[in-house]
Write a structure and sequence with these properties.
Order of helices and strands: EHEEEEEEEEEEEEEEEEEEE
Number of domains: 2
Helix content: under 10%
Strand order of the largest sheet: 5-6-7-8-9-10-12-13
Shape: elongated
Strand content: 35-45%
Structural class: mainly beta
Radius of gyration: 21 Å
Largest sheet: 8 strands, antiparallel, barrel
Length: 273
């Protein structure tokens, strides 16, 4: 059954956050009039999300299995736990895709997950998140985290490495009977925003990672233009990136966009380029 992930106009905190971000992002990194490319810093937002309709099982599917965590090549420093055997899984995030691992204790009375947030295989100082059994699926063993999991994700641009904070929701972890694979689903909670200024026209913008791989610039990811300036990105204000290389503004001017440096910045290509 599809579920709706709604944003903002009803969330005063989100509106205030957006307003502040838009004010402070109103100055480009480099621009001279409209004759040069304009680069606009993007800001991660971890609250709410532009309006998206998705299937309940959408997200990145990560299979998990049991491993011995002591002297394991994938665990340089284990988390603080008396357990010797934990569930282990990986999620692929960033550009190029990098594996970030997770360890899960699902055997004790309280269930926990540790995330290798920077992908260095060291869990010694990583955050421990408690996960809980869901009441939504009677008869099967399903868990979820009420708190998003935090990552520090890498993006490589030529000779530069950009690190972006990324939060993922864990709405669904399924433990199945013998002979079936156990897995969890991760969904990108974080989205990006900035405020473009083009020929004195101000355009609040949001970017959404629709396929939950943490990149924000895949052809089927979404970009939203807040055309009515209500700090609320509605469905009709969104386009897939593959359809938004050139965008027509309210003023009828055309805006050419370059998405290659996302999630660091969004580029307006200079006139006539």
């Amino acid at each position: 059954m599809p579920f709706l992930n709604l944003v903002g106009g009803y969330n005063m905190l989100l509106q205030l956050t957006l307003a502040l971000l838009l004010i402070f992002s109103s100055f480009p990194l480099g621009v001279t009039g409209n004759t040069m490319d304009q680069e606009w810093l993007l800001h991660p937002v971890h609250t709410g999300n532009p309006y998206i309709e998705e299937k309940e099982d959408s997200g990145q599917k990560c299979y998990i299995k049991m491993i011995k965590i002591r002297n394991h090549q994938e665990v340089i420093t284990p988390p603080e736990t008396e357990a010797n055997i934990l569930y282990y899984g990986k999620v692929k995030l960033g550009s190029p895709a990098k594996e970030y691992a997770m360890l899960l204790d699902l055997e004790g009375e309280n269930k926990f997950i540790w995330v290798d947030s920077d992908g260095n295989k060291d869990y010694g100082r990583e955050t421990k998140y408690q996960i809980f059994k869901s009441d939504r699926y009677p008869g099967i063993e399903v868990y979820y985290s009420p708190v998003p999991l935090a990552f520090q994700v890498e993006y490589h641009f030529k000779d530069q490495v950009f690190i972006n904070p990324l939060q993922m929701d864990l709405p669904y972890l399924l433990l199945q009977r013998a002979g079936f694979d156990d897995y969890l689903i991760l969904k990108t909670r974080t989205w990006l925003t900035t405020n473009l200024l083009y020929y004195e026209e101000e355009i609040p913008v949001a970017l959404v990672d629709l396929n939950h791989n943490g990149t924000f610039n895949d052809p089927d990811d979404m970009i939203y233009f807040d055309s009515d300036y209500d700090l609320n990105f509605a469905p009709q204000e969104g386009k897939k990136l593959k359809e938004a290389a050139t965008v027509r503004l309210k003023s009828r001017k055309r805006l050419k966009l370059d998405y290659q440096f996302i999630p660091e910045k969004l580029t307006i290509i200079k006139d006539g380029k």
